[in-house]
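Before anything else, study the sequence and fold tokens given here and see whether the fold suits the sequence. Record follows:
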Amino acid sequence: MEKTLKIGIVQQANTAHVADNRARLKDKVRQVAQQGAELVVLQELHDSLYFCQVESTDNFDLAVAIPGAETTEYAALAKELGIVLVTSLFERRAAGLYHNTAVVFEKDGTIAGKYRKMHIPDDPAYYEKFYFTPGDLGFEPIDTSVGRLGVLVCWDQWYPEAARIMALKGADMLIYPTAIGWESSDTEAEKTRQRDAWIISQRAHAVANGLPVISVNRTGHESDPSGMTNGIHFWGSSFVAGPQGEFLYQAPADAEVEQVVEVSLTRSEQVRRWWPFLRDRRIDEFTQLAKRYID
């Protein structure tokens, strides 16, 4: 008997006003919950602007305790709506120690688990190493009432090893809260290549592991406070893919979206019977993957 799950995704354009961002998010979460969503996924660092365009110690003031007032607020929302909610927060763990952390809330408002972003980029306009300590919780799926969630965050989505480990630990789906976009000086051809690569990489994780993938990105233009660049235009394009990489839904690049997508939780079993990649892995020959580079 086929088992399905209704998943709500929220793709939002943010402002500098945290309270407003959070209020709009909560309204949108309520909308998808009213449409039957049982699991709702938000974008990376959804409470604020993407502050990593500059290196400023003042931005550490945006960080929050986990648990704390903000998690209490999202916990209450999950409980109110009876949903599992995947959030993405700037975690203040201790003075001088911060993480980019996804927190998953269960339907009763309890924290089902959290994931600290493991791969931290340091590129022009994405100065995340200034802010985030690499995660130390490992690649561990989070058990919830709607399934075992393989939650990863943004830059993690480029690494097939992360997706594979989540799959090998029994994840029912892969989830990627994301904040990625174009620097406006890029050519149109380069922009297309970047966005296509982002989509292809994650669809490949779905195929290689026989799992659905949910990727939720932000949208809209956010200026560079330093004025050194023209800011980032986040390319939206949030999507849900099935276990053969097939699109179940794809959002536009330039619009906010609240969407409910129905995903089969039993199709992975059949796909893995057709394509038994886990069976045929030559694990006896993979030890070299633990090396940085093979000279």
In short: The two ends are 51 Å apart (CA to CA). The chain has one domain: 4-282. The chain has a mean pLDDT of 97.
